[in-house]
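Notes to self after the call with IL:
- keep both proteins in one doc
- input above output, always
- annotate only the second one for now

Protein 1:
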Amino acid sequence: RPRCFSLTHSWPVNCNRYVSMMRVIETARFGTIRFAENEVIAFPAGLPGFEEERQFLLVESPESMPLRFLQSIATPALCFVCAPVELVQPDYERWLSRSDRDLLAAGADS
């Protein structure tokens, strides 16, 4: 069964009191996904070619590991396959321009 992946905890969380605060989307690939607001990954400027798509969930499925899926919240049929960069290029060094870091910091406040 697919599950949402959170940067702060493993999903699903055993806390029934938060069920009423959960959001729900019906996706083309994964069916119904319930998620908390803190699991949403925001791209303030959207993605190249998909500038209107700004909110996603990182979804993992055991049979697809190490691949994960970036599932759009706004467009249930839109889902991107993601691979860990280390799988493709083990010596890759992450680097962000100052403007990208500023954009990411601004998105964290909203």
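Protein 2 (the one to annotate):
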Amino acid sequence: AASGIDATVRLQTCAVLMNDLSAHATFAFDPEVFSYDLDIVTEETGVKIQGRAMGDYDGATVTCEGTTLSKTETRAIAISAGEEKEINIVVTAIDTETEKEYIITVTRAAA
């Protein structure tokens, strides 16, 4: 089991919002599960990712596809019809070296 700072470098919450339909994607987020698969309908042009680090009051940061997210920001990811896209979310501890990566693979149905 992870200990010390490594044990706290986790996402506390993660939400996947739809770009077009006003809905959340249904996936059960668990801080100890680092890989997810998600299917979206073809009418959806992409997703918005929102994530919060555990202990974010300690200065941990969350980046999604290279963009740092505040506690309330989302990162929009466009996905073409029929495309499978890997979305990387990285939590970095206050030491700026300890990291954990979460991957959400989103597949949009073909037109």
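Annotation: Residues 11 and 53 are 4 Å apart (CA to CA). The chain has a mean pLDDT of 86.
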